[in-house]
Design goal:
Order of helices and strands: EEHEEHEEEEHEEEEEEH
Distance between the termini: 33 Å
Largest sheet: 7 strands, mixed
Strand order of the largest sheet: 1-5-6-7-3-4-2
Number of strands: 14
């Protein structure tokens, strides 16, 4: 069995507005739900939770330990305070290790490119994530796109050009563009155009609708 990121949790009975009291104690409310399971309401130490979420992202298995059980999960939704960014609540999805799942996996640009390093070219990064299907243990943390293979302006890499980890299938169209080399001056021209637009635009009044703060629902 592969080694997973682990997270200790405690079952909770406090729900609704009363969870504010838990947060003051350094505990974050969470829930584990799944396809064939009843939801499990939990509390988790805030510091430990922040570290685990940072390490796992949305694609790495988090094994939650509660009441002697080990539950393999993925972090599906993290609710945060819009002002300070503090975690308010987390939804974990319980996975079956022998059943394929789909997840959004980030696309990372790797490698060095002579044209980019010299300032002659810029990298047009089209897609920031791909939809990948795999067994939970086979989900990659990211998909790397090596730009060192691009030698001339106009060279590009599509999804179909990727070499994926074993057991992974990308759901996106293989003809979709991932990255492309463009002339660096395009970026410069856009910056100049934006500056001119700002200078020539008349002042306008911007009206925004005010919204009342909503209570996080557990």
């Amino acid at each position: 069995m592969p080694e997973f990121i682990t997270l200790d949790a405690t079952k909770r009975t406090v729900i609704g507005k009363q969870v504010k009291q838990l947060r003051r104690q350094g505990l974050i409310p969470a829930v584990v739900y799944g396809r064939d399971t009843e939801p499990i309401h939990l509390t988790i130490d805030a510091r430990e939770l922040r570290q685990v979420l940072l390490e796992a992202g949305g694609t790495q298995i988090i094994e939650i330990h509660v009441d002697g059980k080990k539950i393999p999960t993925l972090a599906r939704e993290v609710q945060r305070n819009p002002l300070g960014g503090d975690i308010l609540h987390v939804d974990f999805y319980q996975v079956s290790m022998n059943r394929p799942i789909r997840a959004e996996v980030p696309v990372l640009i790797v490698g060095e490119n002579e044209l980019v390093d010299s300032g002659a070219a810029m990298v047009l990064h089209v897609l920031n994530a791909l939809t990948v299907e795999a067994l939970p243990a086979d989900l990659p943390a990211s998909i790397d796109v090596d730009i060192s293979e691009l030698k001339e302006i106009g060279d590009q890499i599509t999804i179909g050009d990727l070499t994926l980890p074993a057991g992974c299938t990308v759901i996106n169209d293989p003809d979709e563009l991932l990255v492309k080399l463009e002339y660096a001056r395009i970026e410069e021209e856009e910056e100049v155009a934006e500056e001119l637009l700002v200078e020539e635009s008349p002042e306008v009044e911007v009206i925004r609708e005010a919204r009342e703060d909503e209570e996080v629902e557990e």
